[in-house]
């Protein structure tokens, strides 16, 4: 766990700064090796083109004129216009969907980070009777797929009046993220030296003060990575709003987009624009905070 | 560690820690109980009754849902699809991701851009991915068929998502496209821990690249290899979004997996108990696999072989 | 991520605030002012924005007449409605009134799941003059569960210009149609514009071929369970399409083609025959610049009969908070004035008598109106559109079966067997 987290940190270092290179790269290059290297770059460029092509296709189709969408919907960048974006934003209702996505994602992300930090600290540093059992209950969530209980949860939420409400969906999103979050934050707190808290205790700090003043500042980077990771997960979540926000009043981008895609083929332009609106926040966060994203996802891998 | 702590910590401190600890996990435990443990218990209850979504006291039916499930040809078909998905959807990204990682390993310039490009598909929402790949597979003007025609392979063109022979693999290709970047990133991070002295020494000894991979690199990244396998494998049991979005399980059930079958049964055909039973089967199958692989991975990690 | 100065009481308070704050907003959005009652009206997404405007104008008329009721229109693509309507209705947060298919597989399935409001009393109170045959389709367990949908027929539209150019006459029987398809194919035009990506189109293909083959009595016997679905006639009807498919007379990848895409092949003249329902007549009339004929799918020995059916009609959710307002709204939809309005503006035929004197319609639609009148008064001979008369389990099998047939996954015999199994199970 801790090892992979550290690896995540390293991973995003720029290539120039990284020290650990396989032997070939450290030697002076012969002409033959140089040809091999440019061949390799060619291959890498081809693979990245395949990787990015669908994303480019979304941009291209979203930014076409409507007339062009009709005749040549998938030709790359054959015209330029904001018609589709305007259309999706106003008529298509994507401005509402975006707002709903924010209203769902931001509180659930905050809740995951806050609850996981508190619990992670407890499970790492505050021993008490029954703690291990509680930890197993929480970590069970990493093992049991959401599928197992999604159907009863629907009827349970209906029973307690939380179905098709924002608080209901926010709490479900939160609950799907806390198992991993707790696991993740616990690893950070476990790594901190015990001398720190002992010294603080000698200085007369209460347990609460040790947590808030000494420990919390030291796991900021971990909490940050968790926040970014959780944000992307919740932003992308499809099944939770599909099942628990069926009414349509609080539809976020993912299910809004799904609903839109069942519509007329003539609406490819606005559909592309809607897709663009949906992915843009993720793409921006991904590019700005690659380190946290990669760290979160790499550690997330442990949750199998 | 817990025992050591307790023996050296004064009782007052321990009591304070207990109080704070309980206060700090109380909200979490409440959430876990209400939104996870309780519905999970309910799922098991549902599988033994015939719940139609309305009746507050549904009739007890014993093992009926289970016997029906095991006699249901469509369940076996869906489960078979899950198995194919697990095997191919694990093996192919592992191979491609490893090759990409080895390619990128000693790339000095622009390495960061490649990594961004490869990883981006993994963070995109599945709905957007499903939509754009639906266009790429479009039988009339999609890029796949257009490319095939341009290459003189027009005979291979088909309605990728509408042809039951190809639909499942077409959706899987999309999923592989999306997950490979993730596998790559994990491998890249593992490769950083490979012992370079050993690599240098082996190269001087005249060991070729294939042998280096087989005897030096792979053993050292084995725990990570297993970790990634666990993730893609569990993902293979749970696959839902991308299939639901791209084909809804069709055409003619060709792309049905346990997840889509459970959803359709419960929420389109009102067979709520049966859908829940199907979902429990996925759970029952995926947990042991995940646990076994996790154990194996831990054991390898403990042996100090890297990662 | 910065969490400086966070204190437990503050965070707990923030949590509580967040939760209560949100719970507070949900109910207020429903009954914001006491004076007017709001009902949500969900319909399948129409073909174009103008139709939505038209309907909104109609709703405005209703709101003028009933100032205390506010109708909020929602539209959703049919495909999405199939996957989410039940979760919506079950949640209790769904629409109050919504348009959905009449018959056991649609309204009936919802009624069985307890999701529909019982309208028996409302029928008595308002004395809605619905045709008897249509009323039957919305009767479930002795209760009236909705307003029947518009009267529709299913048959084949053909491009008269292409037929004229190739010297083809209107097909008089099945072998004529097959010969015509052959000629069209030779001319490099796709004979049939078939789309089956969504799957429901398959039910129509079977309905038309089967209705013409065995007539209304044969259909009655099948639907009553007196004849098995494995009977040779069902297999033969399925085989008709299978043979057209093998001969290359259908669009290339029907199961990859959406309804819209299939139709546009007909509009553009790339395909010559479009087997679908009368609801498309107005759009065809507006969308093409060639002559279009509309005939029944032919029988082996004659012209065949149209399959008649009912489209989507308004139903009321069992969970509606405002049943009175919802019923008042239904009553508005049932007035003769409104019936005439739908014929004139939406080119659909309501399931109750409307005086069509002087109604201005296109020739193609006028023919549809005449056909429908015969269904209504029981004078004409009509087949059935199967999917509105069968259960959702059967329809699921039919959708999958015909997709499998068109893609050579199953033979006609196998599909027929699947249908019989599903019929017995449903």
Q: Write down the CATH class of the largest domain in chain B.
A: Mainly Alpha
Tell me, what is the CATH class of the largest domain in chain C? Alpha Beta
Taking the alpha carbons of the first and last residues of chain C, their distance comes to 56 Å
CATH evolutionary superfamily of the largest domain in chain C: Periplasmic binding protein-like II
Structural class of the secondary elements of chain B?
mainly alpha
Radius of gyration of chain C in whole Å, from Cα? 24 Å
For the record, the count of structural domains of chain C works out to 2
TL;DR?
Chain B contains 13 helices and no strands.
Describe what this molecule looks like in 3D.
With 304 residues, chain A is mainly α. In chain A, 74% of the residues lie in helices and 0% in strands. Chain A contains 16 helices and no strands. In chain A, α1 (2-11) packs antiparallel against α16 and α5 (83-90) crosses α15. Chain A is globular. Mean pLDDT of chain A is 85; it is low at 1-19. Chain B is mainly α and 307 residues long. Chain B has two domains: 2-46, no CATH class; 64-302, MetI-like (MetI-like fold, Orthogonal Bundle). In chain B, 74% of the residues lie in helices and 0% in strands. Chain B contains 13 helices and no strands. Chain B has helices spanning 2-8, 11-46, 64-70, 73-105, 111-123, 126-136, 143-150, 167-191, 196-204, 209-238, 241-246, 258-267, 272-302. Chain B is flat, with a radius of gyration of 25 Å. Chain C folds into two domains: 36-150 and 311-359, Periplasmic binding protein-like II (D-Maltodextrin-Binding Protein, domain 2), CATH 3.40.190; 152-308 and 378-425, D-Maltodextrin-Binding Protein, domain 2 (3-Layer(aba) Sandwich). Chain C has helices at residues 8-30, 49-65, 78-91, 104-112, 120-126, 132-137, 160-165, 174-186, 200-223, 232-246, 259-267, 281-287, 323-333, 336-346, 363-377, 392-406, 412-425, and strands spanning 37-44, 69-76, 97-101, 139-140, 143-144, 151-159, 190-192, 271-277, 292-295, 307-310, 312-316, 383-384. In chain C, strands 6, 7, 8, 9, 10 and 12 form a six-stranded mixed sheet that branches. In chain C, α9 runs antiparallel to α10 (232-246) and α10 (232-246) crosses α17. The longest helix of chain C is centred in the middle third of the chain and has 24 residues, at 200-223. Chains in contact: A-B, A-C, B-C. Chains A and B meet through α1, α2, α3, α6 and α7 of A and α1, α2, α4, α5 and α6 of B.
């Amino acid at each position: 766990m801790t090892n992979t987290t550290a690896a995540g940190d390293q991973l995003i270092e720029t290539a120039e700064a990284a020290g650990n290179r396989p032997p070939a790269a450290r030697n002076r290059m012969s002409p033959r090796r140089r040809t091999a290297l440019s061949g390799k770059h060619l291959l890498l460029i081809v693979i990245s083109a395949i990787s990015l092509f669908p994303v480019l296709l979304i941009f291209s189709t979203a930014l076409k004129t409507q007339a062009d969408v009709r005749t040549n919907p998938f030709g790359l960048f054959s015209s330029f216009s904001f018609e589709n974006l305007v259309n999706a934003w106003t008529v298509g209702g994507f401005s509402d969907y975006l707002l709903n996505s924010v209203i769902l994602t931001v509180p659930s992300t905050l809740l995951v980070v806050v609850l996981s930090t508190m619990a992670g600290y407890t499970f790492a540093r505050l021993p008490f009777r029954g703690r291990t059992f509680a930890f197993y209950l929480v970590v069970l969530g990493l093992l049991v797929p959401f599928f197992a209980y999604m159907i009863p949860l629907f009827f349970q939420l209906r029973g307690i009046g939380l179905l098709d409400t924002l608080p209901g969906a926010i709490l479900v999103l939160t609950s799907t993220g806390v198992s991993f979050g707790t696991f993740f934050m616990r690893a950070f707190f476990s790594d901190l030296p015990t001398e720190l808290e002992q010294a603080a205790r000698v200085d007369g700090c209460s347990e609460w003060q040790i947590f808030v003043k000494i420990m919390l500042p030291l796991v900021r980077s971990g909490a940050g990575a968790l926040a970014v990771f959780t944000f992307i997960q919740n932003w992308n979540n499809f099944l939770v709003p599909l099942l628990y926000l069926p009414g349509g009043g609080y539809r976020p981008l993912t299910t809004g987009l799904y609903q839109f895609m069942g519509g007329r083929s003539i609406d490819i332009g606005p559909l592309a624009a809607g897709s663009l609106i949906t992915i843009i926040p993720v793409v921006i966060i991904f590019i700005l905070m690659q380190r946290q994203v990669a760290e979160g996802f790499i550690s997330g891998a442990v949750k199998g | 560690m817990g025992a050591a702590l307790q023996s050296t910590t004064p009782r007052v401190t321990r009591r304070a820690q207990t109080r704070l600890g309980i206060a700090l996990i109380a909200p979490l435990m409440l959430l876990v109980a209400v939104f996870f443990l309780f519905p999970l218990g309910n799922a098991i209850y549902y599988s033994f009754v015939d719940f139609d979504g309305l009746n507050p006291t549904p009739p007890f039916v014993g093992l009926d849902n289970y016997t029906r499930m095991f006699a249901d040809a469509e369940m076996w078909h869906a489960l078979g699809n899950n198995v194919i998905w697990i095997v191919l959807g694990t093996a192919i990204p592992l191979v491609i991701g490893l090759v990409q990682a080895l390619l990128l390993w000693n790339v000095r310039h622009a390495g960061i851009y490649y990594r961004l490009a490869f990883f981006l598909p993994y963070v995109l929402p599945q709905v957007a991915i499903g939509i754009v790949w639906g266009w790429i597979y479009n039988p009339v003007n999609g890029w796949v068929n257009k490319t095939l025609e341009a290459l003189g392979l027009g005979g291979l063109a088909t309605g990728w998502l509408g042809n039951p022979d190809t639909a499942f693999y077409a959706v899987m290709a999309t999923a592989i496209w999306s997950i490979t970047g993730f596998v790559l990133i994990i491998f890249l991070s593992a490769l950083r821990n490979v012992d370079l002295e050993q690599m240098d020494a082996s190269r001087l000894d005249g060991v070729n690249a294939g042998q280096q991979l087989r005897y030096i690199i792979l053993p050292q990244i084995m725990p990570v290899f297993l970790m990634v396998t666990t993730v893609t494998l569990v993902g293979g049991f749970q696959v839902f979004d991308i299939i639901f979005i791209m084909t809804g399980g069709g055409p003619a059930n060709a792309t049905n997996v346990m997840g889509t079958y459970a959803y359709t049964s419960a929420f389109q055909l009102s067979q709520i108990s049966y859908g829940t039973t199907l979902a429990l089967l996925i759970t029952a199958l995926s947990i042991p696999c995940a646990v076994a692989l996790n154990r194996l991975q831990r054991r390898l990690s403990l042996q100090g072989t890297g990662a | 991520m910065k969490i400086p100065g966070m204190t437990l009481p503050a965070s707990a308070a923030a949590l509580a605030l967040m939760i209560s704050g949100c719970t507070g907003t949900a109910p207020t959005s429903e009954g914001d002012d006491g004076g007017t009652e709001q009902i949500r009206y969900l319909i399948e997404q129409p073909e174009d924005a103008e139709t939505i405007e038209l309907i909104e104008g109609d709703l405005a008329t209703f709101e003028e007449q009933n100032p205390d009721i506010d109708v909020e229109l929602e539209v959703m693509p049919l495909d999405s409605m199939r996957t989410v309507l039940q979760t919506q209705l079950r949640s209790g947060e769904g629409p109050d009134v919504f348009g959905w298919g009449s018959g056991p597989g649609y309204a009936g399935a919802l009624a069985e799941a307890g999701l529909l409001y019982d309208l028996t009393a409302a029928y008595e109170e308002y004395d809605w003059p619905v045709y008897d045959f249509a009323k039957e389709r919305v009767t479930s367990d002795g209760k009236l569960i909705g307003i029947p949908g518009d009267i529709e027929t299913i048959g084949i539209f053909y491009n008269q210009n292409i037929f004229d150019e190739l010297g083809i006459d209107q097909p008089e029987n099945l072998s004529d149609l097959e010969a015509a398809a052959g000629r069209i194919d030779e001319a490099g035009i796709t004979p049939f514009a078939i789309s089956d990506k969504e799957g429901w189109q398959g039910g129509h293909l079977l309905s038309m071929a089967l209705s013409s083959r065995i007539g209304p009595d044969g259909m009655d016997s099948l639907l009553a369970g007196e004849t098995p679905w494995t009977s040779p006639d069902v297999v033969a009807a399925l085989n008709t399409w299978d043979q057209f498919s093998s001969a290359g007379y259908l669009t290339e990848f029907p199961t990859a083609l959406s309804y819209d895409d299939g139709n546009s092949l007909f509009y553009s003249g790339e395909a010559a025959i479009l087997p679908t329902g009368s609801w498309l007549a107005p759009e065809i009339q507006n969308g093409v610049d060639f002559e279009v004929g509309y005939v029944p799918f032919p029988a082996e020995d004659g012209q065949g009969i149209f399959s008649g059916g009912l489209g989507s009609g308004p139903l009321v959710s069992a969970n509606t908070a405002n049943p009175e307002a919802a019923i008042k709204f239904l009553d508005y939809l049932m007035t003769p004035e409104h019936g005439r309005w739908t014929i004139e503006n939406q080119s659909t035929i309501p399931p109750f008598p409307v005086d069509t004197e002087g109604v201005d319609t296109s020739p193609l639609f006028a023919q549809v109106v005449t056909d429908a009148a015969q269904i209504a008064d029981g004078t004409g001979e009509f087949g059935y559109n199967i999917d509105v008369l069968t259960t959702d389990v059967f329809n699921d099998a039919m959708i999958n079966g015909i997709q499998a047939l068109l893609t050579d996954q199953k033979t006609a015999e196998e599909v027929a067997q699947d249908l019989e199994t599903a019929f017995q199970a449903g």
